[in-house]
Amino acid sequence: MSCWLPGCPALSMCRGLAAFPSTCLERAKDLKSRLGILLHKPEEGHRIGTSSKLQLGSRRRDSSREVLEWRESFDQLLKSKNGVTAFHTFLKTEFSEENLDFWLACEDFKKTRSKTKLASKANRIFEEFVQSEAPREVNIDHETREITRKNLSGATSACFNEAQAKTRTLMEKDSYPRFLKSASYQDMTKQATSRGISKRSHT
């Protein structure tokens, strides 16, 4: 739109727009196009919302069963991502999360295929968790520590096996029973049980 007459509204509008930085105008255009997309697709939004609710309901049922399975065995807990997260949160309250972090680091280490990466990862794990006075030293005996140190000279995917097994046993016999008795886990099992009862009453 253009106008050469003095006082023309179109002319003053153009001058006003010219005063804005180009980035502001670009953002305004982008926002307008996004709003247009949202306004023209109400049916799709509705379908997505309905689908999300169904998936959420399914996830809740699965998670309820999963929570109750954690008390069956320590293995069941470690197989569950949510279980590992809940257990890690509990260990933080006891200031002993380094044991689980070391166990998880060892699990990840075993998946390493490159020999170069294997050696560098092994040294990093040893320095962080295993060596005496390490920043996050795990509770293992001197003999296991020395065996692990020697294993580093020819690092393989099995070089932390003994130290990992000792740490796992410590968690299973010490921290895991306390986790099952903790208020946080008791609350989770009550919620899971109540969901199960509610589900059965509606069938």
TrEMBL record:
The gene is Rgs16. Residues 73-189 form the RGS domain. It is a lipid-anchor. It comes from Urocolius indicus (Red-faced mousebird). Pfam families: RGS. Keywords: GTPase activation, Lipoprotein, Membrane, Palmitate, Phosphoprotein, Signal transduction inhibitor. This is Regulator of G-protein signaling 16. GO terms for biological process: negative regulation of signal transduction. One of its GO terms (molecular function) is GTPase activator activity. GO terms for cellular component: membrane.
